[in-house]
Design a protein that fits this description.
Layout (H helix, E strand, L loop, with lengths): L25 E9 L5 E4 L9 E11 L4 E8 L10 E11 L5 E5 L5 E5 L3 E7 L7 E8 L8 E10 L4 E11 L7 E6 L4 E11 L4
Antiparallel strand pairs: 1-13, 2-12, 3-9, 3-13, 4-8, 4-12, 5-6, 5-7, 5-11, 9-10, 10-11
């Protein structure tokens, strides 16, 4: 097998790739589009052992209520109930439109303590002016595993109700060895006015 590693930081002379190497692809599983006031988006199918990682991308979230938050929770019973214990962190950077203040902080108002069954905040305090919205992504790792807790990470960007650009970083885990087989996304207060949520499965490199 010919591999040369000293070619300006690139690989050359690769004559073949073993057939056992597969994956690395994103497969679109579902798209949820909200165009009028809706309470929630539920993912009750497609979240199974087919993939070891799932990515959820959300675009132009616009809330009915000003200053509310985008959040999610998991289920271990196909969506009959949502209230899985979890632990999470929430870090954010912000910069105001007037260019007069900046901040970088850990936000204890949006994290979740040990064994909390509350919803997990992904975007805090979204503005509902006509031009305001939020977008971002969530990674959920190996949700069907029955040995370990289920880790997730997220990063989101928004135009906040205080006219701030906020870059938010979220991480944590569902504190259960049961499979997570459904998710629910909603606003903390009020309904979703508009949103697009895409769910992808990630094929691992093996």
């Amino acid at each position: 097998m010919a591999l040369n590693f000293c070619n300006n930081n690139s690989l050359s002379a690769i004559t073949s790739i073993p057939t056992s190497i597969t994956g690395g692809n994103l497969t679109l599983i579902s798209t949820s589009t909200i165009s009028s006031s809706t309470a929630a988006i539920e993912i009750t199918s497609g979240l199974d052992s087919t993939y070891k990682e799932y990515i959820f991308k959300f675009y132009n979230l616009h809330p009915v209520n000003d200053g509310t938050s985008w959040q999610f929770q998991g289920s271990t019973n196909g969506g009959t109930s949502y209230g899985v214990n979890k632990l999470s962190t929430f870090v954010e950077a912000e910069h105001d439109e007037g260019d007069s203040s900046v901040a970088f902080q850990y936000n204890t108002g949006f994290d979740r303590g040990a064994n909390s069954t509350d919803y997990i905040t992904l975007v805090g305090e979204i503005g509902n002016d006509n031009d305001q919205s939020a977008s971002g992504f969530l990674h959920l790792f190996n949700p069907s595993d029955t040995t370990f807790v289920k880790h997730y990470i997220a990063r989101t960007s928004q135009s906040s109700n205080a006219d701030l650009a906020r870059d938010q970083f979220i991480g944590g885990f569902f504190n259960t060895t049961s499979a997570i087989d459904a998710l629910k996304f909603e606003m903390r207060v009020g309904n979703i006015e508009t949103a697009v949520l895409k769910m992808y499965g990630v094929s691992w490199w093996v």
